[in-house]
Design brief:
Layout (H helix, E strand, L loop, with lengths): L3 H7 L6 H16 L2 E2 L7 H5 L7 E5 L24 H14 L10 H4 L3 E5 L4 E2 L11 H13 L6 E5 H5 L11 E5 L7 H4 L4 H11 L15
Parallel strand pairs: 2-3, 2-5, 5-6
Antiparallel strand pairs: 1-4
């Protein structure tokens, strides 16, 4: 299920004992009840953003745990699903920072297809139970993803929002890559998030790295 572009840098992870135990755990969880996202979308972030095309890596925590919400990209929800609070706050900051209108949906695939890797630290979750798959091995795997991007000669921008994400800072060579960090956009810390202008910082770094700009506008999907 691992996308081809990531096979060379991550393929060995799937053969390690921790990952085999993790895979067994997730399958046992699926046998007991709903687990999100669906099996075919667990690696959706890696599938949408090939390894050599990553310009920006945004790190989330774990998938949305409501039915039909998460589809494998952090902060993103499927078309037709109400935009979650954290993403609404991201949109508000994007509007205030760059002037882009707030879209009518929370489907972030347009970002992913432009080289924005929307990676959760934990890639699965039990229905209705946030952080239920935390500490089962996903963090080891996604740390390997972060390292793989950080090991490239081509620089990237790492976006670490909140204390949880900032713990990943030691994995990144800040001499070659750019790190944009700040408060998490959740309602609990939004006051500190608002006004941080992360998108201006990301755009500046992307340009400095010689990459094509990211168009942050999300098209309206209509009702």
């Amino acid at each position: 299920m691992l996308p081809e572009s990531w096979q060379d840098v991550l393929g060995e992870e799937l053969e390690k004992p921790y990952f085999k135990e993790l895979a067994e755990f997730v399958e046992e969880e699926r046998a007991r009840g709903p687990v999100y996202p669906p099996r075919e979308e667990v690696f959706a972030a890696l599938d949408a953003t090939p390894y050599d095309e990553v310009k920006v890596l945004v790190l989330g925590q774990d998938p949305y745990h409501g039915e039909g919400q998460g589809h494998g990209l952090c902060f993103s929800v499927r078309p037709g699903v109400r935009t979650p609070p954290s993403l609404r706050n991201i949109y508000k900051e994007l509007r205030d920072d760059l002037g882009h209108p707030v879209p009518d949906n929370g489907y972030l695939m347009p970002w992913a297809r432009q080289g924005v890797l929307l990676l959760n630290a934990v890639l699965t979750v039990r229905a209705g139970e946030a952080n239920s798959h935390k500490g089962k091995g996903w963090e080891t795997f996604t740390d390997a993803v972060i390292r793989a991007v950080a090991d490239r000669a081509d620089p990237a921008v790492f976006v670490l929002w909140g204390a949880y994400a900032r713990k990943k800072l030691p994995l990144i060579d800040t001499g070659r890559h750019t790190v944009v960090q700040g408060a998490h956009p959740s309602p609990l810390s939004a006051k500190k998030f608002f006004g941080s202008r992360p998108f201006s910082q990301i755009d500046h770094a992307v340009a400095e790295h010689g990459h094509t700009p990211v168009d942050w506008r999300i098209p309206d999907l209509g009702s």
